């Protein structure tokens, strides 16, 4: 009888922990800024050279993320053609970036997206000058 | 009471017309010159004494300060736009891609066109090619003009460049004042604007949540045919960044599987070259889209 009560207590306490953790991990709205990684749709629309740049530059940064450090470059390339895999990686990156201590890493990851977009972004003189100024800083 | 106060007061008493210029201006700012009798009546002594003390204490303000104070009175402010434009009002400019036929007599690249290409970043040279400011030629596939950062063909009066730190490529900007506006396209045709724009480009100088650069095809901002250009003086002008008029009020519809996005996108789709309609099923479960391509 005593062991039954003990088991019940343990079970109830575990349920409580699960409930609490579900409450604290609120889903991240990935359609609003900050944009750490492009959505599958945004990535799919890119030109081949942008895609290639993005995947090749992002891959080394994934090694810093525990849940993604085993991802190979080929797996990342494959994810670019398969929405479920892409969404998995994206979700892991967004979850990792919830931690403010890794802000620098996340900004570097976001920067890869910005650089990929800039490859075919408007290059009028004003934009070029502004981009050069930012680089100098 | 100081010597100066007595001298100024005496002058006003003798010749009231002299209470003009800096003296009058100062009194106005002190709300003491609202009526003439005060200047010549007993209240004038107090006002002048305060004026004299303040003149001693502070240096005369430069004229620019006055101009800044005047600015908020006008509906369209051209000073300190960052402070005056609300985040829901677009700080906008327009950009274009020059076409060789508007600059050179033949198909040979002339210096006027090269000069414009250096300014605008690229220019259309025909055969689905653009010349970039570096001198390289870029193939733009089936696009009428070119493609933007999003990798999609740019559409005049529909495509917009925005800050990629604040926007996803494909986000839709809803600008209700534009709905139904008759827009003149670069090819001379006219279209009724759907009231939506789509983020398809970026630019180094395009920074902030309400900073947009509207694409106007091959029409530059000073071209009178440009519906968003500097030459129009109605509610469609987009070329003045510091103009915070009401017609530039906008809301953002984020690119996601929502009814609002799908509805807005489908209104835009007829204007976008080669785009398929979006349905909730496709948007939510199009997991294999793009598989095997590129």
Present the secondary structure layout:
The complex is a heterodimer of chains A (137) and B (294).
Chain A lengths: L1 H23 L15 H6 L2 H15 L10 H7 L3 H14 L6 H16 L6 H12 L1
Helix pairs in contact in A: 3-6
Chain B lengths: L2 H12 L6 H9 L6 H5 L2 H15 L5 H8 L10 H4 L6 E5 L15 H10 L1 E5 L2 E4 L4 E3 L19 E3 L10 E3 L7 E3 L5 E3 L3 E6 L9 E5 L35 E3 L5 H10 L11 H6 L9
Parallel strand pairs in B: 1-10, 5-9
Antiparallel strand pairs in B: 2-3, 3-4, 5-10, 6-9, 6-11, 7-8
Helix pairs in contact in B: 1-4
Structure report:
- The complex is a heterodimer of chains A (137) and B (294).
- Chain A has helices at 2-24, 40-45, 48-62, 73-79, 83-96, 103-118, 125-136.
- With 137 residues, chain A is mainly α.
- Chain B is of the alpha+beta class and 294 residues long.
- Chain B is built from nine helices and eleven strands.
- In chain B, strands 1-10-5-9-6-11 form a six-stranded mixed beta sheet, covered by helices on one side. In chain B, strands 2-3-4 form a three-stranded antiparallel beta sheet.
- In chain B, a hairpin with a 5-residue loop joins β7 and β8 (190-192).
- In chain B, α1 (3-14) crosses α4 (43-57).
- Chain B starts with a helix and ends in a 9-residue tail after the last helix.
- The relative contact order of chain B is 0.12.
- Classes of the chains: A mainly alpha (137), B alpha+beta (294).
Total strands of chain B: 11
Structural class computed from helices and strand pairing of chain A: mainly alpha
Number of strands of chain A: 0
Largest interface, counted by CB within 8 Å of the partner chain's CB? A-B, 41 and 42 residues
Number of helices of chain A: 7
Gross morphology of chain B: globular
Poorly predicted spans of chain B:
9-42, 54-82, 283-288, 290-294
What profile does the largest beta sheet of chain B have?
A: 6 strands, mixed
Q: What structural category arises from helix and sheet content of chain B?
A: alpha+beta
Proportion in β-strands of chain B = 5-15%
What is the radius of gyration of chain B computed over CA atoms, rounded to a whole number of angstroms?
A: 28 Å
Q: What share of the residues of chain A does DSSP label as strand, in percent?
A: under 5%
Poorly predicted regions of chain A are 16-24
Radius of gyration of chain A: 21 Å
Oligomer: heterodimer
């Amino acid at each position: 009888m005593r062991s039954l009560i003990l088991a019940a207590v343990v079970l109830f306490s575990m349920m409580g922990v699960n409930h609490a953790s579900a409450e604290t991990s609120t889903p991240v709205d990935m359609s609003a800024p900050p944009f750490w990684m492009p959505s599958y749709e945004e990535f799919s629309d890119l030109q081949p050279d942008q895609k290639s740049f993005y995947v090749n530059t992002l891959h080394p940064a994934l090694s810093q993320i525990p849940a993604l450090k085993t991802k190979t470059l080929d797996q990342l390339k494959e994810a670019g053609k398969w929405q479920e895999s892409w969404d998995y990686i994206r979700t892991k990156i967004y979850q990792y970036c919830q931690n403010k201590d890794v802000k620098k890493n996340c900004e570097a990851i976001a920067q890869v997206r910005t650089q990929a977009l800039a490859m075919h972004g408007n290059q009028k003189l004003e934009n070029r000058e502004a981009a050069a100024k930012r680089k100098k800083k | 009471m100081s010597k100066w106060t007595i001298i100024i007061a005496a002058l006003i008493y003798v010749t009231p017309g002299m209470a003009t210029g800096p003296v009058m201006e100062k009194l106005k700012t002190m709300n003491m010159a609202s009526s003439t009798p005060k200047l010549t009546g007993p209240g004038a002594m107090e006002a002048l004494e305060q004026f004299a003390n303040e003149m001693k204490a502070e240096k005369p303000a430069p004229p620019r300060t006055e101009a800044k104070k005047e600015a908020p009175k006008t509906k369209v402010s051209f000073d300190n736009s960052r402070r005056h434009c609300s985040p829901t009002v677009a700080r906008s400019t327009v950009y274009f891609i020059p076409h060789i036929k508007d600059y050179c007599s033949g198909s040979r690249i002339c210096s006027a066109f090269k000069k414009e290409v250096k300014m605008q970043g690229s220019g259309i040279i025909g055969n689905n090619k653009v010349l970039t400011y570096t001198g390289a030629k870029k193939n733009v596939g089936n696009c009428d003009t070119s493609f933007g950062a999003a990798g999609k063909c740019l559409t005049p009066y529909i495509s917009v460049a925005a800050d990629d730190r604040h926007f996803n490529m494909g986000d839709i900007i809803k600008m209700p004042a534009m709905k139904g506006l008759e827009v003149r396209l670069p090819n001379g045709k006219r279209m009724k604007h759907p009231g939506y724009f789509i983020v398809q480009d970026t630019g180094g100088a395009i920074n902030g949540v309400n900073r947009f650069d509207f694409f106007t095809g091959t029409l530059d901002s000073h071209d009178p045919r440009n519906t968003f250009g500097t030459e129009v003086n109605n509610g469609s002008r987009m070329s003045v960044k510091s103009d915070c008029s009401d017609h530039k009020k906008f809301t953002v519809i984020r690119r996601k599987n929502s009814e609002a996005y799908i509805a807005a996108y489908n209104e835009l789709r007829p204007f976008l070259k080669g785009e398929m309609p979006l349905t909730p099923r496709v948007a939510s479960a199009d997991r294999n889209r793009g598989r095997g391509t590129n």
